[in-house]
UniProtKB/TrEMBL annotation:
<dbReference type="Pfam" id="PF00781">
    <property type="entry name" value="DAGK_cat"/>
</dbReference>
<dbReference type="GO" id="GO:0001729">
    <property type="term" value="F:ceramide kinase activity"/>
</dbReference>
<dbReference type="InterPro" id="IPR001206">
    <property type="entry name" value="Diacylglycerol_kinase_cat_dom"/>
</dbReference>
<dbReference type="InterPro" id="IPR016064">
    <property type="entry name" value="NAD/diacylglycerol_kinase_sf"/>
</dbReference>
<dbReference type="GO" id="GO:0016020">
    <property type="term" value="C:membrane"/>
</dbReference>
<protein>
    <submittedName>
        <fullName>Ceramide kinase-like</fullName>
    </submittedName>
</protein>
<dbReference type="InterPro" id="IPR017438">
    <property type="entry name" value="ATP-NAD_kinase_N"/>
</dbReference>
<dbReference type="Pfam" id="PF19280">
    <property type="entry name" value="CERK_C"/>
</dbReference>
<dbReference type="InterPro" id="IPR057465">
    <property type="entry name" value="CERK_PH"/>
</dbReference>
<dbReference type="Pfam" id="PF25382">
    <property type="entry name" value="PH_CERK"/>
</dbReference>
<keyword id="KW-0812">Transmembrane</keyword>
<keyword id="KW-1133">Transmembrane helix</keyword>
<dbReference type="InterPro" id="IPR045363">
    <property type="entry name" value="CERK_C"/>
</dbReference>
<feature type="domain" description="DAGKc">
    <location>
        <begin position="68"/>
        <end position="219"/>
    </location>
</feature>
<feature type="transmembrane region" description="Helical">
    <location>
        <begin position="7"/>
        <end position="29"/>
    </location>
</feature>
<dbReference type="InterPro" id="IPR050187">
    <property type="entry name" value="Lipid_Phosphate_FormReg"/>
</dbReference>
<dbReference type="GO" id="GO:0006672">
    <property type="term" value="P:ceramide metabolic process"/>
</dbReference>
Protein backbone atom coordinates (compact mmCIF):
# COMPACT_ATOMS: atom_id res chain seq x y z
CA UNK A 1 0.00 0.00 0.00
CA UNK A 2 1.42 3.39 -0.97
CA UNK A 3 0.15 6.17 1.22
CA UNK A 4 -0.47 9.15 -0.98
CA UNK A 5 -2.54 11.61 0.82
CA UNK A 6 -2.91 13.71 3.82
CA UNK A 7 -5.03 11.70 6.15
CA UNK A 8 -8.57 12.95 6.24
CA UNK A 9 -9.69 13.02 9.86
CA UNK A 10 -13.23 13.67 10.85
CA UNK A 11 -14.37 14.00 14.47
CA UNK A 12 -17.91 13.05 13.94
CA UNK A 13 -20.46 15.06 15.89
CA UNK A 14 -23.74 16.07 14.48
CA UNK A 15 -25.43 13.26 12.60
CA UNK A 16 -23.28 10.44 14.03
CA UNK A 17 -22.46 11.83 17.46
CA UNK A 18 -24.51 9.29 19.36
CA UNK A 19 -22.23 6.48 18.13
CA UNK A 20 -19.28 8.15 19.87
CA UNK A 21 -17.13 7.09 16.90
CA UNK A 22 -13.99 8.62 15.45
CA UNK A 23 -12.50 7.51 12.14
CA UNK A 24 -9.76 8.41 9.77
CA UNK A 25 -9.67 7.61 6.09
CA UNK A 26 -6.31 6.82 4.54
CA UNK A 27 -6.11 7.16 0.78
CA UNK A 28 -3.72 4.96 -1.16
CA UNK A 29 -2.82 3.86 -4.66
CA UNK A 30 -4.03 0.54 -5.99
CA UNK A 31 -2.56 -1.07 -9.12
CA UNK A 32 -5.12 -2.10 -11.72
CA UNK A 33 -4.82 -3.65 -15.18
CA UNK A 34 -2.66 -2.29 -17.99
CA UNK A 35 -0.44 -0.17 -15.76
CA UNK A 36 -3.38 1.89 -14.52
CA UNK A 37 -3.40 3.17 -10.96
CA UNK A 38 -6.47 4.04 -8.95
CA UNK A 39 -7.07 5.85 -5.70
CA UNK A 40 -8.57 3.72 -2.94
CA UNK A 41 -9.10 4.39 0.72
CA UNK A 42 -9.38 2.51 3.91
CA UNK A 43 -11.23 3.83 6.90
CA UNK A 44 -9.99 3.15 10.41
CA UNK A 45 -12.54 3.39 13.16
CA UNK A 46 -11.64 3.92 16.77
CA UNK A 47 -13.72 4.47 19.84
CA UNK A 48 -11.09 6.58 21.55
CA UNK A 49 -10.66 10.09 20.32
CA UNK A 50 -7.09 10.45 21.61
CA UNK A 51 -5.96 7.19 19.93
CA UNK A 52 -7.43 8.32 16.63
CA UNK A 53 -5.57 11.62 16.91
CA UNK A 54 -2.35 9.73 17.53
CA UNK A 55 -2.86 7.64 14.38
CA UNK A 56 -3.47 10.72 12.33
CA UNK A 57 -0.46 12.53 13.75
CA UNK A 58 1.83 9.54 13.17
CA UNK A 59 0.69 9.06 9.59
CA UNK A 60 1.15 12.79 8.91
CA UNK A 61 4.65 12.66 10.34
CA UNK A 62 5.49 9.67 8.14
CA UNK A 63 4.14 11.45 5.07
CA UNK A 64 6.17 14.56 5.90
CA UNK A 65 9.33 12.45 5.71
CA UNK A 66 8.63 11.78 2.01
CA UNK A 67 10.38 14.86 0.70
CA UNK A 68 10.30 13.89 -2.98
CA UNK A 69 6.56 14.57 -3.16
CA UNK A 70 5.61 17.87 -4.78
CA UNK A 71 3.80 20.49 -2.71
CA UNK A 72 3.42 23.28 -5.25
CA UNK A 73 2.85 22.75 -8.95
CA UNK A 74 2.44 25.01 -11.94
CA UNK A 75 -0.14 23.55 -14.33
CA UNK A 76 -0.71 24.48 -17.99
CA UNK A 77 -3.86 23.25 -19.71
CA UNK A 78 -4.22 23.20 -23.50
CA UNK A 79 -8.00 23.48 -23.99
CA UNK A 80 -7.67 22.54 -27.68
CA UNK A 81 -5.49 19.41 -27.52
CA UNK A 82 -6.83 16.00 -28.61
CA UNK A 83 -10.61 15.88 -28.27
CA UNK A 84 -10.57 19.31 -26.60
CA UNK A 85 -11.31 17.84 -23.17
CA UNK A 86 -8.19 19.04 -21.34
CA UNK A 87 -10.04 21.41 -19.03
CA UNK A 88 -12.71 18.85 -18.06
CA UNK A 89 -10.13 16.12 -17.54
CA UNK A 90 -8.16 18.38 -15.21
CA UNK A 91 -11.18 19.66 -13.25
CA UNK A 92 -12.92 16.32 -12.84
CA UNK A 93 -10.14 13.75 -12.63
CA UNK A 94 -6.93 15.47 -11.58
CA UNK A 95 -7.71 18.48 -9.37
CA UNK A 96 -9.52 16.32 -6.75
CA UNK A 97 -6.44 14.06 -6.45
CA UNK A 98 -4.11 17.06 -6.07
CA UNK A 99 -6.32 18.57 -3.42
CA UNK A 100 -6.58 15.29 -1.45
CA UNK A 101 -2.80 15.04 -1.55
CA UNK A 102 -2.49 18.64 -0.28
CA UNK A 103 -0.72 19.71 -3.45
CA UNK A 104 -1.35 23.36 -4.18
CA UNK A 105 -1.50 24.49 -7.79
CA UNK A 106 -1.36 27.57 -9.98
CA UNK A 107 -3.33 26.77 -13.12
CA UNK A 108 -2.94 28.51 -16.47
CA UNK A 109 -5.32 27.68 -19.33
CA UNK A 110 -3.33 28.52 -22.46
CA UNK A 111 -4.71 31.14 -24.82
CA UNK A 112 -2.49 30.50 -27.82
CA UNK A 113 0.16 28.14 -29.14
CA UNK A 114 3.51 28.68 -27.36
CA UNK A 115 1.85 30.47 -24.42
CA UNK A 116 3.17 27.84 -21.98
CA UNK A 117 6.64 27.81 -23.58
CA UNK A 118 7.03 31.60 -23.42
CA UNK A 119 5.65 31.87 -19.90
CA UNK A 120 8.03 29.20 -18.63
CA UNK A 121 10.97 30.63 -20.54
CA UNK A 122 10.75 34.17 -19.25
CA UNK A 123 8.00 35.01 -16.77
CA UNK A 124 7.21 32.14 -14.41
CA UNK A 125 8.63 32.39 -10.89
CA UNK A 126 9.98 28.85 -10.86
CA UNK A 127 11.38 29.06 -7.33
CA UNK A 128 7.82 28.72 -6.04
CA UNK A 129 7.29 25.28 -7.58
CA UNK A 130 8.40 21.67 -7.17
CA UNK A 131 7.34 20.78 -10.70
CA UNK A 132 5.42 21.79 -13.79
CA UNK A 133 2.51 19.87 -15.29
CA UNK A 134 0.98 19.95 -18.74
CA UNK A 135 -2.51 18.83 -19.62
CA UNK A 136 -2.48 18.05 -23.34
CA UNK A 137 -0.62 16.00 -25.92
CA UNK A 138 2.97 15.54 -27.04
CA UNK A 139 2.92 19.03 -28.60
CA UNK A 140 2.02 20.61 -25.29
CA UNK A 141 4.71 18.60 -23.48
CA UNK A 142 7.21 19.72 -26.10
CA UNK A 143 6.25 23.37 -25.56
CA UNK A 144 6.83 23.10 -21.83
CA UNK A 145 10.05 21.17 -22.22
CA UNK A 146 11.40 23.82 -24.60
CA UNK A 147 10.51 26.59 -22.13
CA UNK A 148 12.15 24.79 -19.24
CA UNK A 149 15.28 23.59 -21.04
CA UNK A 150 15.92 26.97 -22.70
CA UNK A 151 15.47 28.82 -19.44
CA UNK A 152 17.82 26.45 -17.63
CA UNK A 153 20.51 27.00 -20.30
CA UNK A 154 20.09 30.77 -20.27
CA UNK A 155 20.39 30.93 -16.49
CA UNK A 156 23.47 28.66 -16.61
CA UNK A 157 25.06 30.70 -19.42
CA UNK A 158 25.04 27.74 -21.84
CA UNK A 159 24.74 28.46 -25.57
CA UNK A 160 22.03 26.20 -27.06
CA UNK A 161 23.37 26.81 -30.57
CA UNK A 162 26.69 25.17 -29.83
CA UNK A 163 26.86 21.40 -30.24
CA UNK A 164 30.11 21.41 -28.29
CA UNK A 165 28.62 22.67 -25.03
CA UNK A 166 27.21 20.34 -22.39
CA UNK A 167 23.62 21.26 -21.62
CA UNK A 168 22.61 21.84 -18.00
CA UNK A 169 19.98 19.34 -16.71
CA UNK A 170 16.67 20.86 -15.62
CA UNK A 171 15.93 20.96 -11.92
CA UNK A 172 12.12 20.86 -12.04
CA UNK A 173 10.27 17.66 -12.85
CA UNK A 174 7.60 17.63 -15.56
CA UNK A 175 4.24 15.88 -15.18
CA UNK A 176 2.05 14.94 -18.14
CA UNK A 177 -1.71 14.60 -17.86
CA UNK A 178 -2.56 12.97 -21.20
CA UNK A 179 -5.24 14.84 -23.15
CA UNK A 180 -3.81 14.85 -26.66
CA UNK A 181 -3.91 12.88 -29.92
CA UNK A 182 -0.94 10.50 -29.66
CA UNK A 183 0.18 10.86 -26.01
CA UNK A 184 3.26 8.82 -26.79
CA UNK A 185 5.51 10.44 -24.16
CA UNK A 186 3.04 9.67 -21.39
CA UNK A 187 2.30 6.15 -22.68
CA UNK A 188 5.98 5.24 -23.07
CA UNK A 189 6.93 6.48 -19.59
CA UNK A 190 3.90 5.30 -17.57
CA UNK A 191 2.45 2.45 -19.65
CA UNK A 192 -0.98 4.01 -20.14
CA UNK A 193 -2.59 7.23 -21.28
CA UNK A 194 -4.87 7.50 -18.32
CA UNK A 195 -5.12 10.92 -16.60
CA UNK A 196 -5.85 9.52 -13.11
CA UNK A 197 -2.79 7.26 -13.27
CA UNK A 198 -0.59 10.19 -14.29
CA UNK A 199 -1.98 12.37 -11.49
CA UNK A 200 -1.15 9.62 -8.98
CA UNK A 201 2.41 9.29 -10.30
CA UNK A 202 2.77 13.03 -9.73
CA UNK A 203 1.48 13.08 -6.16
CA UNK A 204 3.61 10.12 -5.05
CA UNK A 205 6.61 12.08 -6.35
CA UNK A 206 7.91 9.63 -8.97
CA UNK A 207 10.99 10.60 -10.92
CA UNK A 208 12.10 9.31 -14.32
CA UNK A 209 15.12 10.81 -16.08
CA UNK A 210 14.85 11.19 -19.83
CA UNK A 211 17.16 11.77 -22.80
CA UNK A 212 16.64 14.83 -24.99
CA UNK A 213 17.99 15.22 -28.55
CA UNK A 214 19.01 18.66 -29.73
CA UNK A 215 18.46 19.24 -33.44
CA UNK A 216 20.68 21.71 -35.26
CA UNK A 217 21.06 23.09 -38.76
CA UNK A 218 24.67 24.11 -39.30
CA UNK A 219 25.40 26.55 -36.48
CA UNK A 220 21.91 27.13 -35.28
CA UNK A 221 19.77 25.23 -32.83
CA UNK A 222 16.35 24.24 -34.19
CA UNK A 223 14.43 22.18 -31.60
CA UNK A 224 14.60 19.49 -28.94
CA UNK A 225 13.08 16.04 -29.36
CA UNK A 226 12.34 13.32 -26.81
CA UNK A 227 10.33 10.83 -28.85
CA UNK A 228 10.25 10.61 -32.65
CA UNK A 229 12.33 12.45 -35.19
CA UNK A 230 10.98 11.17 -38.49
CA UNK A 231 11.77 12.07 -42.09
CA UNK A 232 9.82 10.64 -45.04
CA UNK A 233 6.76 8.67 -43.93
CA UNK A 234 6.14 10.25 -40.50
CA UNK A 235 7.14 13.71 -41.75
CA UNK A 236 4.62 13.42 -44.58
CA UNK A 237 1.87 12.08 -42.29
CA UNK A 238 2.36 15.07 -39.99
CA UNK A 239 2.50 17.64 -42.80
CA UNK A 240 -0.73 16.31 -44.27
CA UNK A 241 -2.45 15.95 -40.89
CA UNK A 242 -1.88 19.60 -39.90
CA UNK A 243 -4.49 20.60 -42.52
CA UNK A 244 -6.95 18.21 -40.89
CA UNK A 245 -6.60 19.34 -37.26
CA UNK A 246 -10.40 19.79 -37.05
CA UNK A 247 -10.73 15.98 -37.30
CA UNK A 248 -8.99 15.50 -33.93
CA UNK A 249 -6.85 12.38 -33.35
CA UNK A 250 -8.36 10.59 -36.42
CA UNK A 251 -6.39 12.98 -38.66
CA UNK A 252 -3.29 10.85 -38.22
CA UNK A 253 -5.05 7.70 -39.50
CA UNK A 254 -6.49 9.45 -42.56
CA UNK A 255 -3.15 11.10 -43.38
CA UNK A 256 -1.40 7.79 -42.63
CA UNK A 257 -3.41 5.92 -45.26
CA UNK A 258 -2.97 8.78 -47.78
CA UNK A 259 0.79 8.93 -47.21
CA UNK A 260 1.06 5.16 -47.38
CA UNK A 261 -0.69 5.12 -50.77
CA UNK A 262 1.51 7.94 -52.15
CA UNK A 263 4.57 5.73 -51.44
CA UNK A 264 7.16 8.47 -51.79
CA UNK A 265 10.82 7.79 -51.20
CA UNK A 266 13.64 10.23 -50.49
CA UNK A 267 17.32 10.17 -51.27
CA UNK A 268 20.03 11.33 -48.97
CA UNK A 269 22.95 10.51 -46.71
CA UNK A 270 22.72 9.49 -43.08
CA UNK A 271 25.90 9.54 -40.96
CA UNK A 272 26.06 8.49 -37.33
CA UNK A 273 28.27 7.80 -34.35
CA UNK A 274 27.33 4.38 -32.94
CA UNK A 275 26.71 4.07 -29.21
CA UNK A 276 29.48 2.25 -27.44
CA UNK A 277 29.87 0.21 -24.27
CA UNK A 278 27.07 -1.83 -22.73
CA UNK A 279 24.29 0.09 -24.40
CA UNK A 280 22.73 -3.03 -25.95
CA UNK A 281 21.19 -3.07 -29.41
CA UNK A 282 17.76 -2.08 -30.73
CA UNK A 283 17.12 -5.74 -31.55
CA UNK A 284 17.84 -7.19 -28.13
CA UNK A 285 14.91 -7.93 -25.87
CA UNK A 286 16.12 -5.74 -23.00
CA UNK A 287 13.07 -3.51 -22.82
CA UNK A 288 13.31 -0.37 -20.69
CA UNK A 289 11.24 -0.93 -17.56
CA UNK A 290 10.97 0.69 -14.13
CA UNK A 291 14.43 0.75 -12.54
CA UNK A 292 16.05 -0.21 -15.90
CA UNK A 293 19.64 -1.38 -15.28
CA UNK A 294 20.94 0.04 -18.59
CA UNK A 295 19.60 3.52 -17.75
CA UNK A 296 20.94 3.26 -14.17
CA UNK A 297 24.34 2.28 -15.57
CA UNK A 298 24.23 5.39 -17.79
CA UNK A 299 23.69 7.63 -14.72
CA UNK A 300 26.67 6.17 -12.91
CA UNK A 301 28.86 6.34 -16.04
CA UNK A 302 28.01 10.01 -16.31
CA UNK A 303 29.27 10.62 -12.81
CA UNK A 304 32.60 9.11 -13.78
CA UNK A 305 33.17 10.82 -17.13
CA UNK A 306 31.16 13.95 -17.75
CA UNK A 307 30.91 14.87 -21.42
CA UNK A 308 33.10 12.29 -23.10
CA UNK A 309 35.11 13.60 -25.98
CA UNK A 310 33.88 11.98 -29.20
CA UNK A 311 36.66 13.35 -31.44
CA UNK A 312 38.28 9.95 -31.95
CA UNK A 313 35.03 8.18 -32.91
CA UNK A 314 34.41 7.06 -36.47
CA UNK A 315 31.29 8.04 -38.31
CA UNK A 316 29.34 5.43 -40.28
CA UNK A 317 27.96 6.83 -43.54
CA UNK A 318 24.94 5.36 -45.35
CA UNK A 319 23.65 6.71 -48.61
CA UNK A 320 20.39 5.56 -50.17
CA UNK A 321 16.74 5.89 -51.06
CA UNK A 322 14.53 5.77 -48.01
CA UNK A 323 10.78 5.54 -47.36
CA UNK A 324 11.42 6.57 -43.77
CA UNK A 325 14.28 7.67 -41.54
CA UNK A 326 13.21 7.52 -37.90
CA UNK A 327 15.13 8.28 -34.73
CA UNK A 328 13.37 6.99 -31.62
CA UNK A 329 14.94 8.23 -28.38
CA UNK A 330 12.42 6.15 -26.44
CA UNK A 331 10.19 3.26 -27.51
CA UNK A 332 7.47 5.67 -28.80
CA UNK A 333 4.84 3.24 -27.55
CA UNK A 334 1.35 4.67 -27.89
CA UNK A 335 -2.18 3.28 -28.20
CA UNK A 336 -1.70 2.90 -32.01
CA UNK A 337 1.48 0.90 -31.47
CA UNK A 338 1.63 -0.52 -27.92
CA UNK A 339 5.24 -1.71 -28.23
CA UNK A 340 6.34 1.38 -30.19
CA UNK A 341 8.62 2.25 -33.09
CA UNK A 342 11.65 0.80 -31.30
CA UNK A 343 10.43 -1.55 -28.55
CA UNK A 344 13.86 -1.87 -26.88
CA UNK A 345 14.81 1.82 -26.93
CA UNK A 346 15.68 3.25 -23.50
CA UNK A 347 14.30 6.34 -21.83
CA UNK A 348 17.54 7.47 -20.25
CA UNK A 349 20.56 5.72 -21.81
CA UNK A 350 21.93 8.68 -23.78
CA UNK A 351 21.19 7.08 -27.16
CA UNK A 352 18.57 7.11 -29.90
CA UNK A 353 17.60 4.21 -32.19
CA UNK A 354 18.06 5.17 -35.83
CA UNK A 355 15.72 3.19 -38.09
CA UNK A 356 16.30 3.29 -41.84
CA UNK A 357 13.53 1.93 -44.05
CA UNK A 358 14.85 1.68 -47.59
CA UNK A 359 12.75 1.93 -50.72
CA UNK A 360 10.69 -1.26 -51.05
CA UNK A 361 7.32 -2.39 -52.42
CA UNK A 362 4.08 -1.11 -50.89
CA UNK A 363 3.30 -4.62 -49.68
CA UNK A 364 6.62 -4.90 -47.88
CA UNK A 365 6.21 -1.48 -46.29
CA UNK A 366 2.69 -2.39 -45.15
CA UNK A 367 4.07 -5.57 -43.63
CA UNK A 368 6.66 -3.48 -41.73
CA UNK A 369 3.98 -1.04 -40.51
CA UNK A 370 1.64 -3.83 -39.44
CA UNK A 371 4.39 -5.31 -37.30
CA UNK A 372 4.21 -2.16 -35.14
CA UNK A 373 0.83 -3.37 -33.99
CA UNK A 374 1.59 -7.06 -33.30
CA UNK A 375 4.30 -9.12 -31.63
CA UNK A 376 6.42 -9.65 -34.76
CA UNK A 377 9.81 -7.97 -35.14
CA UNK A 378 9.44 -4.89 -37.38
CA UNK A 379 13.20 -4.82 -37.97
CA UNK A 380 13.32 -8.34 -39.41
CA UNK A 381 13.17 -7.21 -43.06
CA UNK A 382 15.96 -6.92 -45.63
CA UNK A 383 14.97 -3.28 -46.31
CA UNK A 384 15.09 -2.20 -42.64
CA UNK A 385 18.27 -1.36 -40.73
CA UNK A 386 18.46 -0.14 -37.15
CA UNK A 387 21.37 1.32 -35.20
CA UNK A 388 21.78 2.59 -31.65
CA UNK A 389 23.53 5.96 -31.95
CA UNK A 390 24.54 8.96 -29.85
CA UNK A 391 24.76 11.46 -32.69
CA UNK A 392 23.63 11.56 -36.35
CA UNK A 393 23.34 13.81 -39.40
CA UNK A 394 21.16 13.78 -42.46
CA UNK A 395 21.69 15.56 -45.77
CA UNK A 396 19.01 15.23 -48.45
CA UNK A 397 20.22 14.41 -51.96
CA UNK A 398 19.19 17.77 -53.45
CA UNK A 399 21.39 19.57 -50.94
CA UNK A 400 24.27 17.17 -51.50
CA UNK A 401 24.28 18.50 -55.06
CA UNK A 402 25.20 21.92 -53.69
CA UNK A 403 27.72 20.62 -51.18
CA UNK A 404 29.39 18.36 -53.76
CA UNK A 405 29.79 21.42 -55.94
CA UNK A 406 31.34 23.35 -53.09
CA UNK A 407 33.61 20.51 -52.09
CA UNK A 408 34.81 19.16 -55.41
CA UNK A 409 34.65 22.14 -57.72
CA UNK A 410 35.88 25.33 -56.25
CA UNK A 411 35.94 27.00 -59.66
CA UNK A 412 32.94 28.82 -61.06
CA UNK A 413 32.78 26.63 -64.18
CA UNK A 414 32.36 23.41 -62.24
CA UNK A 415 29.70 24.95 -60.09
CA UNK A 416 27.73 26.09 -63.11
CA UNK A 417 28.07 22.66 -64.72
CA UNK A 418 26.77 20.71 -61.69
CA UNK A 419 24.01 23.18 -60.95
CA UNK A 420 22.86 22.63 -64.49
CA UNK A 421 22.71 18.84 -63.96
CA UNK A 422 20.60 19.42 -60.84
CA UNK A 423 18.25 21.71 -62.75
CA UNK A 424 17.94 19.20 -65.56
CA UNK A 425 17.06 16.46 -63.11
CA UNK A 426 14.33 18.62 -61.70
CA UNK A 427 12.97 19.28 -65.19
CA UNK A 428 12.83 15.61 -66.18
CA UNK A 429 11.02 14.75 -62.97
CA UNK A 430 13.57 12.25 -61.68
CA UNK A 431 14.91 14.78 -59.19
CA UNK A 432 14.24 13.36 -55.75
CA UNK A 433 11.61 15.29 -53.85
CA UNK A 434 12.04 16.43 -50.26
CA UNK A 435 10.11 15.57 -47.13
CA UNK A 436 9.98 17.31 -43.74
CA UNK A 437 11.23 16.24 -40.36
CA UNK A 438 8.54 15.41 -37.82
CA UNK A 439 10.12 16.45 -34.51
CA UNK A 440 7.81 15.21 -31.72
CA UNK A 441 4.84 16.32 -33.79
CA UNK A 442 6.27 19.65 -35.03
CA UNK A 443 7.50 20.22 -38.58
CA UNK A 444 11.12 21.38 -38.74
CA UNK A 445 11.99 24.26 -41.08
CA UNK A 446 15.14 22.50 -42.38
CA UNK A 447 15.82 19.09 -43.92
CA UNK A 448 19.62 18.94 -43.44
CA UNK A 449 20.04 18.38 -39.72
CA UNK A 450 22.57 17.36 -37.08
CA UNK A 451 21.29 15.59 -33.96
CA UNK A 452 22.97 15.06 -30.61
CA UNK A 453 21.55 13.05 -27.68
CA UNK A 454 21.81 14.70 -24.24
CA UNK A 455 21.62 11.95 -21.68
CA UNK A 456 19.06 12.46 -18.86
CA UNK A 457 18.55 16.17 -19.46
CA UNK A 458 15.05 16.27 -17.98
CA UNK A 459 13.05 14.40 -15.35
CA UNK A 460 9.39 13.39 -15.43
CA UNK A 461 6.93 12.57 -12.67
CA UNK A 462 6.92 8.91 -13.79
CA UNK A 463 8.80 5.69 -12.98
CA UNK A 464 8.99 3.94 -16.36
CA UNK A 465 6.69 1.08 -17.25
CA UNK A 466 6.31 -1.37 -14.37
CA UNK A 467 6.67 -5.10 -15.00
CA UNK A 468 3.23 -6.72 -15.13
CA UNK A 469 2.48 -8.54 -11.89
CA UNK A 470 2.33 -12.32 -12.30
CA UNK A 471 -1.17 -12.52 -10.83
CA UNK A 472 -3.61 -9.91 -11.92
CA UNK A 473 -7.07 -9.33 -10.61
CA UNK A 474 -9.14 -10.26 -13.67
CA UNK A 475 -11.96 -8.01 -12.50
CA UNK A 476 -9.82 -4.93 -12.02
CA UNK A 477 -10.70 -2.27 -14.53
CA UNK A 478 -8.86 0.80 -15.64
CA UNK A 479 -11.64 3.15 -16.62
CA UNK A 480 -13.69 5.07 -14.09
C1 LIG B 1 -1.24 -0.58 -40.71
C2 LIG B 1 -1.19 0.03 -39.34
C3 LIG B 1 0.08 0.72 -39.09
C4 LIG B 1 0.15 1.39 -37.77
C5 LIG B 1 1.50 1.94 -37.55
C6 LIG B 1 1.48 2.76 -36.34
C7 LIG B 1 2.83 3.24 -35.96
C8 LIG B 1 2.63 4.33 -34.96
C9 LIG B 1 3.92 4.84 -34.45
C10 LIG B 1 3.62 6.12 -33.77
C11 LIG B 1 4.84 6.78 -33.28
C12 LIG B 1 4.40 7.99 -32.52
C13 LIG B 1 5.53 8.85 -32.16
C14 LIG B 1 4.99 10.11 -31.55
C15 LIG B 1 4.70 11.15 -32.25
C16 LIG B 1 4.06 12.35 -31.60
O1 LIG B 1 5.04 13.13 -30.97
C17 LIG B 1 3.37 13.16 -32.68
C18 LIG B 1 2.60 14.34 -32.05
O2 LIG B 1 1.61 13.88 -31.18
P1 LIG B 1 0.43 14.85 -30.66
O3 LIG B 1 -0.47 15.13 -31.80
O4 LIG B 1 -0.24 14.07 -29.55
O5 LIG B 1 1.04 16.11 -30.14
N1 LIG B 1 2.43 12.32 -33.37
C19 LIG B 1 2.60 12.01 -34.65
O6 LIG B 1 3.50 12.43 -35.33
C20 LIG B 1 1.55 11.09 -35.23
C21 LIG B 1 2.15 9.85 -35.73
C22 LIG B 1 1.01 8.90 -35.97
C23 LIG B 1 1.22 8.13 -37.15
C24 LIG B 1 0.06 7.23 -37.40
C25 LIG B 1 0.33 6.54 -38.66
C26 LIG B 1 -0.80 5.66 -39.04
C27 LIG B 1 -0.37 4.89 -40.25
C28 LIG B 1 -1.48 4.18 -40.89
C29 LIG B 1 -0.98 3.51 -42.15
C30 LIG B 1 -2.06 2.72 -42.70
C31 LIG B 1 -1.74 2.01 -43.96
C32 LIG B 1 -2.97 1.29 -44.40
C33 LIG B 1 -2.92 0.86 -45.78
C34 LIG B 1 -4.17 0.28 -46.27
N1 LIG C 1 -4.64 27.80 -26.36
C1 LIG C 1 -4.12 27.27 -27.46
N2 LIG C 1 -4.62 27.56 -28.67
C2 LIG C 1 -4.13 27.00 -29.80
N3 LIG C 1 -3.11 26.12 -29.82
C3 LIG C 1 -2.56 25.79 -28.63
C4 LIG C 1 -3.03 26.34 -27.41
N4 LIG C 1 -2.31 25.83 -26.40
C5 LIG C 1 -1.39 25.00 -26.97
N5 LIG C 1 -1.54 24.99 -28.31
C6 LIG C 1 -0.78 24.21 -29.31
O1 LIG C 1 -1.58 23.11 -29.74
C7 LIG C 1 -0.75 22.12 -30.32
C8 LIG C 1 -1.28 20.74 -30.09
O2 LIG C 1 -1.35 20.51 -28.75
P1 LIG C 1 -1.37 19.09 -28.06
O3 LIG C 1 -1.78 19.36 -26.64
O4 LIG C 1 -0.13 18.39 -28.27
O5 LIG C 1 -2.57 18.33 -28.78
P2 LIG C 1 -2.57 17.20 -29.90
O6 LIG C 1 -2.05 15.98 -29.25
O7 LIG C 1 -4.02 17.05 -30.25
O8 LIG C 1 -1.73 17.65 -31.04
C9 LIG C 1 0.60 22.32 -29.69
O9 LIG C 1 1.55 22.52 -30.71
C10 LIG C 1 0.47 23.56 -28.82
O10 LIG C 1 1.56 24.43 -29.04
CA1 LIG D 1 17.29 6.90 -25.21
Amino acid sequence: MILIMQVTFYLVFGIMWHFHLCFSAVFYVERMRQHCWRCSNVTFHCSEHSMCLLWVQTIREQLALLTNRPKNLLVYINPYGGKQRGKQIYDHKVAPIFSRASVSTDVIVTERANHARDHLKTEADLKKYDGVVCVGGDGMFSEMMHGLVSRTQREAGVDENSMEETLMPCGLRIGIIPAGSTDCICYATVGSNDPVTSALHIVVGDSQPMDVCSVHNEDSFLRYSVSLLGYGFYGDVLTDSERKRWMGPARYDISGVKTFLSHRYYEGTVSFLPAEGDSGTPRDKMQCRSGCSICLQTSSDQLVSKNEDSCGDTWTVIRGKFLAINAASMSCACPRSPKGLSPSAHLADGTTDLILVRKCSRLNFLCHLLRHTNKEDQFDHSFVEVYRVKQFRFTPRYQECDSEVDLRESGATGKRFLSQICREHRACGCMPSQSNWNCDGEILPHTAIQVLVHSQLIKLFARGIEEQPVFEDPYAQCAI
